[in-house]
Amino acid sequence: MDLSIIIVNYKTEELTRQCLQSVYACDLKDWTYEVILVDNASGDGSAQAAVQAFPQTRLILNDANLGFSKANNIGMAAASGDYVLLLNSDTVVEADTFYRSLRYMKANPEIGALGCKVLLPDGRLDVACKRSFPTPLNSLCHMSRLDRVFPQNPVVGAYNLTFLDPDKIYSVDCLVGAYMMVSRDVIELVGTLDEDYFMYGEDIDWCYRIKEAGYLVVYYPKVSITHYKKASGLGRKNPQTIEAFYDAMKIFYGKHYQDKYDGLTARMVLGGTQVLKKIALLRNR
Question: What superfamily does domain 3-130+166-231 belong to in CATH?
Answer without folding.
Answer: Spore Coat Polysaccharide Biosynthesis Protein SpsA; Chain A (3.90.550.10)
